[in-house]
Each structure stands twice: as structure tokens, then as C-alpha cells.
Amino acid sequence: MHILVTGASGLLGLNLALEAAAAGHTVTGVHNRRPLYAREFKTLQADLLEPDALEHLLEHTQPDWVIHCAALANVDACEEDPGLAQRLNADVPAKLAQLVARGGARLVHISTDAVFDGERGNYAETDAPHPLSVYARSKLAGEQAVAAANPQAVIARVNLFGWSLTGQRSLAEFFVNNLQAGRKVFGFTDVFFCPLLVNDIAYLLLRMLELKLSGLYHVVSRECLSKYDFGIRIARQFGLDDTLITPNSVVAGGLKAARSPNLTLNTHKLSTALGRPTPSISPAIERFYTLYQQGYPQRLQAMAAAP
To answer: Cα 125–131–132 angle (5° rounding)?
Structure first.
């Protein structure tokens, strides 16, 4: 299949493009300002906010599958510029969904667990969202627009970690970078989530397309934990000093946007469709470490430099 991946310089987009190419698909990755040089797949530069950019992109590439990862994902940046968050996280997906439906390709739209307020956890796809931040509200608006414009699309709510182009995009990288430098960091004991390695998410999304699934799915780990405990597991896997991680409350974290405390999601719907449970966290952290040993972070960061 020919797969078009938007946001290909981002954490999920880059790893997804690489995993899809390794699986034998033809991949075109779209990036905006951040340069991206990849041998494994084609790259295109485009500003998705420009008039007719999406039309030109789809006409030029003629993809079978489109996986829309591009977004304004910095939660605090969304608070600072709600208009930009709305355009990137809601308006662009709405238009893309319309165009993809018209052209006959299949679409996966990437959303977030943050659409929930986190008051109780174990959320199923049938539970009503209650977003707390500009980011979460804009992503929920994107979900709703995609579902209305393209009922055959997959909408995947994710929470992810992994290696990135800059080496600074995921919580796991944050812990590794700081602990390797001997710096003390905080870990929130009152924020729970179900993170999944981006490489595992890539596999699941491709499998969902192969199975011709549609609708809303929670694509996260079947195991959940606090961000503090996640940091401890990362430290121990890498042989780093876990005493550098100080337990702390998110209330004392000084973050601009409100964070949902309990974003544990139920993955029964996806597990049933796949015929197997989604991955758990321990093997994902082990694979994260194996990729590190294999030089994968350096491989990705080399893609940000001119050849």
C-alpha cells in the first residue's frame, strides 16, 4: 500500500513511517518546518494550513491509506494560542477527512486520551469526553469533525513514548536524558496513564487498516501506571539512579494547562477486534531500551541533519 503520513517529523509520525516502510509499504512522509532527510521513505514539505495544501498533497501522492499524525501537541502552547490549536487540531482534520472520503482512501486520525477529565479512569470509547485544556478541546473537536465527515475513518486515541527526531519529545526521553546527566527530576504520583511505545502503536495502526476497522478506538497499553512509576521503570531498565526522581504532585508542577489525573483507558474494543490484547508496558520499555542499544536514537537524529 502507499501510505501518506502527516506530521512525519513528529514522534509518532516518524516512527510510523519507518515501521510502515520496513513492513514493505510505500510511504510518503509530510513534514513542515523541521527538516527531515530519510532514505527509507519519501519526504515532502508542506504547510497544511495553506489554502489548497491538502488538495494538492492528496492529488500529488494518490495514497491508499492516510495516517494523520500532524497536530499542535504541545499542551501549554495550545493554551497560549487557542486559534492555532483549533486550526491545526480540528479544522485541518475536518477538511482532510472530507477529501479522503471523496477520494476513496482509508484514513486514520490520531487523537488523545486527554479528551477525558480523568476523574475516574478506565474510560471506554462509549464514555462521554470532558476535556480540560485548549489542547484537549481542540483534539475532541477534531475527532467529532472527522467522524462526521468520514464515518469509515479510524479515530485512534493514543498515549505514547519512544525515540524522536530531536531526542526531546517523549516523557521517556525526558527521564533518560536527565538521569544520564545526573539531574534530579520530578515524577507525578497523581497522574495515571497507559503509554504505549510508538513502534507498537505503528504496528497496531497498520493492522487496524489491514482489518478495515472503522470508528473510535483506544490504542494504548493494557497496563497503566503513574508517571512517577513510569520514570522509575525507565531508570531501572537503563541502569540509572532512580533516587534522582522525586515523587511530586501535578498541582505543584507549575504547568500552564490543566492535566487530567486518571487517564487510564479501557482497550477491550481494540483487543476484541485484533483477537489479542494490546501490549503491556514492561515489554515496551524493554524494546525502548533495545532500540537504544542498537543506536536507533542516533539514527533518527541523523535524519534532522542535511545529508
So the answer is: 150
